[in-house]
Structures are given as C-alpha cells and as structure tokens.
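[audit] Reproducing an earlier prediction to check determinism. Same input, same settings, fresh worker. If the tokens differ from the archived copy the diff job will pick it up downstream; this log only records the rerun itself.
[audit] input (550 residues):
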Amino acid sequence: MLSRLSITNYTLIKSLDMHPHESMNIITGETGAGKSIMLGAVGLLLGNRADSRALLDHDRKCIIEGEFNIKNYNLGKLFAGYDLDFEPSTLIRREITPSGKSRAFVNDTPVTLDVLRDLGSRLMDVHSQHQTRLLGSATYQLNLIDIYAQTSIVLEKYQMRYQAYKVAEDNLEELLRNADRISKESDYNDFLLKELEEADLSANDQETLEAELKLLEHAEEIKGNLNHILTLLDLNEQSGTSILQEAQTLMRQISTYSQPLKNINQRLNEAYIELKDLVNEIETQEQTVEVDFGGTEKVRDRLSMIYHLQSKHQVSDIKGLLDIKEKLEEESFIANHLEEQINKAKEQLARDKEKTMKLANELSKQRQVIFRPFEKAIILLLQQLGMPDAKLKIEWNNKQASANGTDDISISFSANKGVAPAPLSKVASGGEFSRLMFCFKYTMANKTALPTMVFDEIDAGISGEIAMQMGKMMQKMAENHQVITISHLPQIAAKGQAHYFVYKEINADRSVSMVRKLSEEDRVKEIAKMIGGDSPSEHAFKSAKELILS
C-alpha cells in the first residue's frame, strides 16, 4: 500500500506530504483546488511521461516520491528480475528538471519508465475518466474477463506457446521468401566456392609468399654480396680472420705482462670465435639462396591469384577470403538442403500450432465458463446502485489466434427497461458508465492482489441512497485493499477512515494547492458544507454526523 506521498514543485503544488490510511481515504475540495493534480503526480510514479511545463517554479526541479509497504505482495521475484534491491518499504521517486529531463528511481536505483510501469501496475489501480472511456475497448473488456476467470496461469502458458508458434511461422516464411533467391544464386555461389576451394588458402599464405618472393627476386644480389663478404672476411690472405689471427698471436706474447693486456687478449679470442661463427652463418645463407627463375614465377602467379581474389571479393587479407569461403559453404549447404529445411519448418510449425490451439481452447473454456456468473454479479451490483433494469451480456466469437487467445469478446449493456443491450462503446451516460466501471472494480477487487485502488470522482452522476450504497461498497473493498477516493458526495466522504481536504492558498505571486488531514471535528464541518453549502445549518451538521456513524 501507499504509506507516504510527497510532491514538490508540481503544477499548483508547492509542497505536499501525506501519509494515507491503510484502509479508506477520502480526498475532497473545491473544483479546481488541485485534487486531480495529485493523481497526475501519482501517475508519474506509475510510469506516465513527464513534461517540464508541469513545474510550478521553472527554475527548480520537481520531485515526487511514493513510499510503498510491499512486504506481503510477493514482489521479490519481480525486483530480482530487474536487478533491484527488494525492500519491504520501497521508495519510488520521479524527478523532472527545468530542462525537461526526467529520471526515475526505485530504492535509489535508476530505472526506465518500462520498469516503473511494470512495477506500478502491481502496486496501484488508478481509475480516471480516461479509464472509464476504455470500457469500450475490446482489450480492456477481455482483461476484465481474465481477471474474473483467474486465467493468469493458463494465459501465461498460452502466450509462451503462441510466441514459439509465431517464431516457427516467421522461420518458415523466411525460408520460403528466400527459397527463390537462394535457388537463383546457388550456381554462382557454387562457382565462387569452388574457386576458393581450389585456391587452397591457409591463414599465413600471403605473408609467407610475399617474404619468399622478396628473396627470390633479389637472389642474385644476395648471393653476390654474401660471396664478396666471405672473401673479405675469410677467403684471402688479407681476410678479416687472417688479420685477427695475427693480432691474437702478437697479443698472446705480451698478455702476461699486465691485467689490461690479459683482458685485451681474452677479448681478441672472443672476437675471433664470434667472427668464425658469423662466417659459418654467412656460408649457410649463401648456400641456401638459389637463383630460381621458375620458382619466382610460380610464387608471383600464386600471389597474383590471391590479390585477384581479394579484389574480386573486396577484402584486404586472407582472413577475409576464408570468412567468405565459410559463408559460401553455409549457403551451399542451405541450398542443397533447402527442401529438407522447409519440410522441417512446416512440421515444426504444425506441432507448435497444435500445442498453441490446445492451450487456446483451454483458455477459452476457462473464460466462457464464467460469462454467466460474471453477468449476474455485475447486474446484481448495478441494481444495488439504482439501476434495477440493467442488463449485461457478454458476446463471444471465435477468431484467429492472437497474443491474447482466440476469443473475440464484446460486453453489451443496457441501463433501461425495454432497451436491448448494445456494445459499451455505443451506450450509457457518464453516470451510468461510472457506476458500471465501479461495479467492475468492485468485482475485480477480490480477484486481484493490487495493494491500492484509487478512484477519481467515480461517483459522478449519482446521489442520495445510491451514493450511500457506493460508499458502503468502497468500505467493503477497503477491508482488503487500500482505497483512495476523490469525491464530491458527502455520503461517500463520510465513509473514510482518513479525510484529506485540498484547497487553494493565494499569495501575492500565485495560487498554490495545499492539502491537510482533517480532524474529526473538521471532518464533520467539511461534510456538513458538502451537504448545505459554505454556511451549513444545524440540520446539515446533524446529517453529517449521522452519515459518519451510519
């Protein structure tokens, strides 16, 4: 339930903080005082879109907070699904900046509006004039039937199966749509694949071949230079090794005369060893390098073929060609097994359709079995609310499977004797619609686990004994739900456990909406004013007290 509502800088509300009673709460006030503005703020907590024009002071941000006691409503799994911390006392906050940016938080964790709507739909049911107009909607009517029939389990199973059925249907349509294209492209793709297969490419081909070609193209130069280096270092009387040997002999003769000479002798020996090792390496390289004009052409041809394939397929390396080859192999497999895949897709679709229709039939039976009890329950309530000749009829037709099943449901209604029921979108006055909506809400209350139910002048168009009866019904609802009712009728206002009065306070700059909780004495006075005007008589005060005690 809603344990605290705080509104700052919203429309006509400068600052408001209220702690609704856990049972039945009444909100009254003059027309235009700001009662419905409070509902607009609550709507923001439930995920409605924000508008910076709603700011009272456009230089400050608007903050709306709602604290909800949710420990008994099994919402832990929902919180875990959105990676939110579950708290028995959960705080929802909306902020609107002067620039129009809106942010939402659940227990100080930022959330999207979709998350807020999902959570809000499980915390509050807010009736408004707009919702009353929704009575004509087939979706809304079907939802009423589902709530009354308690179809949530089978409906969830059906929707999961229907989703699988649609995936199978989309898969088959995709295969059929692509079948002609795949068939036409098959021959060309096979040619491209064969060309790449014959190229016999490996990941390092290009790098290896380019290095090999570089050696082959410069083989003569490399071999000539290496031979000349060998001659300089080792193959004549004045070669580097001969000169170094002579230096070794001379140094060896004097190395024992001092430590520095001994060190130089050692370094000459090491230099000779390194030079001989270098000569051996150069000889090896010289023998390895061969002038091979035929081999050079072969490497050039293979590289040319690789460059041509890269240009043809618009890639820059071997990996790109190998990726294309893999894709062509997949397309070739699809083309060669297309008929088989289509047959499998048809079989899968048939299986999914059969399972879907089985659940659709189960769902439909569960709905249809409550049609007459639902009609009777609503008619009985309408009679209690001053509509003795009311008729309600649920019309049913079978339709093509959709996300909500195969039931085409339309609720027809007549308030007057001798008038046949007609679809809700075409009948009923404002007052009749309000009473009908209230009957639906009252009937659904025992079927749902919604903590809080909010009514915005659902008592429009009624008075007297009918209003008394509606107030008693609200009290009954408040035994298991928190009820918040905006009302203009004393008969309903008298039934609340807590009574809040909304009024305008006018200062030099602007008018602002204020709200205060009425004491028992003030409550009697307010109800008396609702009965007898701004200057209520003793009789009005007496009637107010009687209404509160009744």
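[audit] rerun output stored. Observation attached for the diff report: The chain has a mean pLDDT of 88.
[audit] end
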